[in-house]
Amino acid sequence: MRYAILPACLLATACNTHQSALAPFGVEAGETRTLTLVMALAALGLAAITFALYFRAVRAPEGSLSHTGGMKLVLWMGAIVPTVLLAGLLLYALPAMRPMDSAPGDLEIRVEGEQFWWRVIYDPQDPQGRLVDANEIRIPTGRTVVFTLAAHDVVHSFWIPGLAGKMDMIPGRENRLVVKATKPGRYRGVCAELCGLAHALMAFEVVAVEPVAFDSWLAEHQAGIAAPPKDSRGARLFADQGCGACHAIQGTEHTGQIGPDLTRYAHRKSLGAGTQEPTLANTADFIRAPEDLKPGARMPTYTDLSREEALAIARYLKGRE
Amino acid sequence: MSDPAPRKWQHRLHITLWVLIVPPTAWAAHFLFSYLWAAISCAKTGHFATMPWIFIGGTVLALAVIALAGWVAWHQSRTPGDPPPHKESTRIDRLRFLATATLLLAALSTVGVIFTALPVVFLRECT
Amino acid sequence: MSLHDQDDPALRCAQEERLRAVWAAPKGIFLKWTDCNNDAVGAWYVLTGFVFMLFAGVLGLLMRTQLAVPENDLIGPATFNQLFTLHGSMMMFLFAVPMFEAVSIILLPQLLGARDLPFPRLSAFGYWSFLLGGVFVGGSILFNAAPDGGWFMYPPLTTRTDLSGIGADIWMLGLSFIEVSSIAAAVELIVGVLKCRPPGMRLNLMPLYAWYILVVAVMILFAFPPLIAGDVLFEMERLLNWPFFDATRGGDPLLWQHLFWIFGHPEVYIVFLPSIALFAMLVPTFARRHLLGYPWIVLAAVGTAFLSFGLWVHHMFTTGLPKISLGFFSAASEAVAIPTAVQIFVFIATLWAGRVNWSTPLLYATGSLGVFVIGGLTGVMVAVVPFDWQAHDTYFVVAHLHYVLIGGTLLPLFAGLYYYWPLITGKKLSDRLGRLAFWILFAGVNLCFFPMHLSGLMGMPRRVFTYPEELGLGDLNMASTAGAFLFAAGVAVICLDMCLSPRRPLANRNPWNAGTLEWLAHPQDEHWGIRSIPLIESRYPIWDQPDFMRKVDEGRYFLPDAEEGRRETIVTSVIDARPLAVIRLGTPAWVPMLTAFVLGSVFILTTYHLYGLALIGSVLTLACVVWWLWTGTAEIPEKPSKPIGHGLELPLYISGRSAPGWWAMFITMMADATAFSGLVFGYYFFWTRHETFPPMALADGPGWFWPMVALLAGGVSWLLTLAARSANSRGATGAMALLLTGAMLAALGSGVAGLAGPWLSGLNPEAHSYPAIVWTLTLWTVAHAGLAVIMQAYVLARGLAGRMTARHDADIRNVTLFMHFFVLSVVVTYATIGLFPEVS
């Protein structure tokens, strides 16, 4: 099936393999791609037959089809053949709708959509193991993972094209999405439902790793990672500016829940929910004027902060100070 | 514009535009019933409806209504007269046209009801 | 027989002079806008819709320009969100639906050999509402105030006033106003098809266009009202803070999605079927034979109409509804492909059997079928749930819907444009320019939208103002942008062709040698519609009935004269088109325009929270409506009947079930009842969403006492109105007055008791969705009680003024019909809010 995405790649110079339903790394996305290819080929065939019949009809001399013959054409090609084909498609597609089986012990990850970022909570039911992160989701390959999807402000939609179909996050509701990754790698997911100004800038990293690596990562982070030094300039500025009212950093007094958790910011591969490289300079710019990078972002601007001060905070977050 | 009154019972049936929509209305009722049956059961009890016979009964009833309408229409459509297309301005042709259209709608509605019933065979999940 | 009379040319000439005088359009720079003849109103309507389409198309081009390259910063998200919201909303609400109504207002009377539609002033009212509402909604983007929540306006993004501005109100109120005019047009078209056919045109001889219009107008009747119900809830939340969609207070955003898509999916077929109707007219003409499989087309139209109401959840496959529910809707979504396939093969079979004349309109029809088939097949794909989980809200769906709408609406309209241009203007459009434009359009549409299938599956979501370069979607998007501009160039060529038309010579009458009635029209414009109303014996009378055109032109059929100087047309029976009566039609007047403008002011003032002024506007609207009805309807004729030729004598006044007015009331009330059922759906929807419902202790509900009083009083008002009707038909004016007064008091009492329930128990609608929906149902029903009082008072006044008599009783019959629906809503509302909490 790999060659099937070739036509797509012929048209596009660089065919992405990390955010595409045509390049699956999960069980469901793989099955759906097969379904897609079968249906697309069938559709092409049916279109070709219809067009061929149409042109045959236009060229036919008058009277080459009698009333009875015409009625037979309509009955067979218009009614019976489509009915049989559609019934077949339905019989093929309905069983494919069944959700993947999940067992009580499966890894549960709760993801909450916010304007315009993602709160990620591993083991949300377990008061000890509960691990809060943002904008990056780490999953083990070969194991069933249950996503619980929710939202507080507006409707978002959780879509990792290479892993599975999308599922909406609707205020007041909780949706479940059961997935199984098959191939390790770094992938990308996005918000697929219009959620406001920066809807286009609401993505996240998906890191699929071997189960052993995942287990040790989870255990390590659940045990708590080393807090950044408290007496640096960046740390003081972070506290003075009241960043902790919205952001949490594990091991410090900052426990805000309104914005993304920044404990693991140094490990992230992106800034602003999949929008930019998390370099020091970009981080500092974002701190001073989030609105410039993400229109509609809820974080206030800190233009009274000098660029140098912002860099200090950035260094603090990146854990280099 | 005037024709002799038809003789047989199936031609005397009072024909209105409403008759035409009996089969699709049966489909619509069955569809709405199926949707509410599943949705309310899932929303209020949290699991799939435990009484499938209600669904089976509803499906059989809908198919029976459609079959009845189709049967009447079939008889009406065989009223003697010139061959199709029914394009004369006569009572008989109008009757045969409406009957043919009703018969076709009955066929489509039958397919519609069967399609609607198929998911119940394959899916039993509320989530 | 009066045939020999018509042999006298002098008599014919005198008749023509009289008809011409009666049907003359008002002259003068201001007065001409009072015209209500279908050819004038229809032409304005089409032109306005076309301008809105061009405007929305330019918005689309702006979007494509922004998306041409990745990470472009030409247009920011604030503007971009307004662009796509308005592009979609305008194309759907201000182009596709109104355009079908506009075209039908022009064509339908011609197709049916009627002088005009039964309610010309209603057409004019619809047009002015459409113009005002359209300019209000479309113009908002020039003030950076356009709606920006997507054309389906999902709450809470759009209901939270901190996340969305006045644009959301403009969308809701402006488009609600336009929905009113759409429903008005639907009423007009349904009654036109059912009651204004020429004698002899039984159901089996009706032109297929009329069949489609009938079906589509009925669909509008059932599809638009749920959206109006949704609009009501939506604005209650925005303006009054009633939490229907706010999850923190017991609301649910999904209720809006249900109500929107119960409208939104049939909407797709509402804009698609009329275009197929155009094919059904032009394919036989260019195949030079009768359409093969007439009943199959009726099957397809009616079947599609029904099935299209079972598809709405396929827009909600990713909302996490139970899988079994998704299964039902997936099945119906696939079943709807069957009637669509039937229609396509009916056209193929007809072309096959006939001798094809390869004309420009047929070229457009062929191209649009090609485009549509691809859109239809991808439609079957997205109906498959697992595939839709991937494709939903991506550019795949953008591709699918544009293939369907361009192939199923826009290109067929261009086919219709080339086909019917001679009918409207008397001149043909250029074949050369037309074919050139076609090939540009055809290349443009495929270049623009085919790559989107791929960009969608390769991870590009909808409604993004930018996309990262690393996704490798730059080339696909550049191709789409190039295609969009190519398409625009094709549209420009068509515009050029139309602009050149006035310089071209007149075409022959019936230039395509078609067989249907509309081609009786003269190249030189005559406003009378048709010279004499023919007796129909065939589906293609111009082909099949000997000497048909000459007989019509020489006034040898019915109603060849206007002796009394009145605009008239014939009303016939629904099934067999037996002539029943001659009705007098509305003449040019200011009142439709005025009513549209004051009603529009109510919606616009409410948008800006100017409630006092809006209230004044409502009172003025009521005054206009009463003035309109009083002076323009149910007029008692100067003589009971008149001859229409061939020895037929028809009454000049009808009431009850055979009258167009009764049907109009019935159809309007069907729409009203559908909107009401949308609200009732809301109540029971909240019941399924809450473990205990009502969520608070029962004592906090409206109780059962006051609702039951309101129910009883409403029932009494209904019975008294029935009694008043029979008193009136006995000629007992005094008894009728007494009974009507009692009915008014009872309706008033029902309203007061209805309000007393939630008022006395102190239900606070801002606290929770339960009190909010109870109040909404109550207010809806109380408002109808108020309407009942006004109508009863109106009928009473008509009776006392001698404008309604025992025999001329249309007013009271129509009001009785209203009361049937009123009592139904009274029973449902008060049983629901008063009794359901007791049993649930």
UniProtKB/TrEMBL annotation, chain A:
Keywords: Copper, Electron transport, Heme, Iron, Membrane, Metal-binding, Signal, Transmembrane, Transmembrane helix, Transport
Record-linked Pfam families: COX2, Cytochrom_C
InterPro entries: CcO_II, CcO_II-like_C, Copper_CuA, Cupredoxin, CuRO_CcO_Caa3_II, Cyt_c-like_dom, Cyt_c-like_dom_sf
Domain Cytochrome c: 229-321
Residues annotated as domain Cytochrome oxidase subunit II copper A binding: 104-220
Transmembrane segments: 35-54, 74-94
Entry keyword Membrane: yes
Keyword Transmembrane annotated: yes
Signal peptide extent: 1-23
Location in the cell: Membrane
Chief location of this protein within or outside the cell: membrane
Catalytic activity: 4 Fe(II)-[cytochrome c] + O2 + 8 H(+)(in) = 4 Fe(III)-[cytochrome c] + 2 H2O + 4 H(+)(out)
PANTHER family, per database record: CYTOCHROME C OXIDASE SUBUNIT 2, CYTOCHROME C OXIDASE, SUBUNIT II
Family: Belongs to the cytochrome c oxidase subunit 2 family.
Protein's name according to its UniProt entry: C-type cytochrome
Organism: Novosphingobium mangrovi (ex Hu et al. 2023)
Automatic annotation (TrEMBL), chain B:
Transmembrane spans: 17-40, 52-74, 95-122
Keywords: Membrane, Transmembrane, Transmembrane helix
Top-level division of the source organism's lineage: Bacteria
UniProt keyword annotation of Transmembrane present: yes
Transmembrane helix is among the record's keywords: yes
Name this protein carries in UniProt: Transmembrane protein
Organism: Novosphingobium mangrovi (ex Hu et al. 2023)
From TrEMBL, chain C:
Keywords from the UniProt entry: Cell membrane, Copper, Electron transport, Heme, Iron, Membrane, Metal-binding, Respiratory chain, Transmembrane, Transmembrane helix, Transport
Pfam families given in the database record: COX1
Start and end residues of each Cytochrome oxidase subunit I profile domain: 17-549
Transmembrane segments: 42-63, 90-112, 124-146, 170-194, 206-228, 268-287, 294-315, 335-354, 361-385, 397-421, 433-458, 478-500, 585-604, 610-630, 662-684, 704-724, 736-760, 772-796, 817-836
InterPro entries in the record: Cyt_c_oxase-like_su1_dom (IPR023616), Cyt_c_oxase-like_su1_sf (IPR036927), Cyt_C_Oxase_1 (IPR000883), Cyt_c_Oxase_su1_BS (IPR023615), Cyt_c_oxidase_su3-like_sf (IPR035973), Cyt_c_oxidase_su3_a-hlx (IPR013833)
Keyword Magnesium: no
Membrane topology per record: Multi-pass membrane protein
SUPFAM superfamilies, A to Z: Cytochrome c oxidase subunit I-like, Cytochrome c oxidase subunit III-like
Family listed: Belongs to the heme-copper respiratory oxidase family.
PANTHER family in the cross-refs: CYTOCHROME BO(3) UBIQUINOL OXIDASE SUBUNIT 1, CYTOCHROME C OXIDASE SUBUNIT 1
Protein name: Cbb3-type cytochrome c oxidase subunit I
Stretches of the chain forming a coiled coil according to its record: none
Main location: membrane
Protein localization: Cell membrane
